[in-house]
Amino acid sequence: QVQLVESGGGLVQAGGSLRLSCAASGHTFSSTATAWFRQAPGKERLFVAAISRGGGKTYYADSVKGRFTIARDNAKNTVYLQMNSLKPEDTAVYFCAAKTAPAFVYYTRNGDYDYWGQGTQVTVSS
């Protein structure tokens, strides 16, 4: 079992930056591929970024490529999302997710993931 708790959300001006954290409990975290998803008001939940269990592979949605960076520190049982050059359209609740996976493997669909955090709100003002 893996429990995930997101933090670091808040209000930021367009062009600014935020760093989200997802803290995991459970010794199996280092065996999980992890990802970030987001859900804007009235919209569907969408994939943002994924990282393999050891950090060797990453993948980004086109909408955030070049602006966001996903990383993880397995010694701290934490995955991060560094968000730069934020735009109002990035406003959403951001969720982290995890799934037990082989090395160098990641997933991009909601249904792929077994464990989810509660979400953290990111609001970008224009």
Walk me through this protein's architecture.
The protein has 126 residues and is mainly beta. 0% of the residues lie in helices and 51% in strands. The chain is built from no helices and 11 strands. The chain has strands spanning 3-7, 10-13, 18-25, 32-39, 45-51, 58-60, 68-73, 78-83, 92-100, 115-116, 120-125. Strands 2, 4, 5, 6, 9, 10 and 11 form a 7-stranded mixed beta sheet that branches. The chain starts with a strand and ends with a strand. The model has no long low-confidence stretch (mean pLDDT 96).
Largest sheet features: 7 strands, mixed
- Specify the helix fraction band: under 10%
Number of strands: 11
User: How large is the share of residues in beta strands?
Assistant: over 45%
Low-confidence segments, ≥5 residues, pLDDT <50?
A: none
